[in-house]
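Writing this down once: the sequence line spells out the residues, with the fold written below as integer tokens. I am pasting one below:
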Amino acid sequence: MTWLIAAMLTAMQSAHAEDYYDRRYQKEGAWSQMFGIGMLYIPEWEGDDELAFHATPLFDFRWRERFFISSRDGIGFNFYRGNRVKAALSIGYMPGRSEGDSANLTGLGDISTAASVNLFTTIEHQGWLFGMGLSRAITGDHDGMIAAFSADRYYVIDDETTLNFGTTLRLADEEYMQAFYSINAAQSAASSPTATTSTSGGTEFEVVDLDAFENVIVGFAEDETTDNDETASARDTREKQQLPTYEAGAGLKDMGVHLNLYHKWDDNWGIGASATASQMLGDAADNPLVDYRGKSLQLGGGLYLTYTF
């Protein structure tokens, strides 16, 4: 599961907005239980400029609002629960990235999904819910950490329908940024579109027709094109280039907005729709993978069906 699915889960399940979330799903008794499925239309990897469909499970099981197992929050417990403030600790996961997800990731290698320890708190104030969270990888290829800050506004349209919209800002430390956005010399060399893996484990290079290449260059030099055409040509050329080395540092990662509409049509079944838009920032947006082969503005949407029992 990619980080993008995790981001959509946040939008679908109210961005750690547990007080409002619980009111929509909670049944009477010690246990509240929900499961469902979501169909998402999102980029394949962070920075991708193409969208694809993904199905993902949704679930949330809570006991006396103290312990929980959730596709959004992980496995954990609320160690503080006040009238308007809540704090929780959980074990969850930090999504990775697979080189096989896209040809644009060739040579960059896999980043494994990692278990993470999460600390988060929410504060409710006059119809707004403010969230703060820290997540640190404790297994896998890195021990990076992400800090997230969110603000959500909620509207109860009627007894069955809730609307919320909000924004999220995320920062990451150097370990996380280097794992996902830095490109070392070996990765740069392997990212060449003319490099293929041989059966002997070495690297073979395709033969380039220099005459044809020269004709292309001359043609570009002589061709009078519009600014848009020049931009498109430059973009196409960059997509085919070997990625240069790059070193990312700690700082801002992305900022986004999300919108979620949920309708519960009887005591058990409900349906919802979500949309997100996220702008990558800092070194995350400037890394060559996004600059050459993707885009920094990430869009996504999804529909989901839930059953409460």
Observations:
- Residues 14-27, 196-230 have pLDDT under 50 and may be disordered.
- The chain has two domains: 3-186+243-308, 194-239.
- Residues 194-239 form one domain.
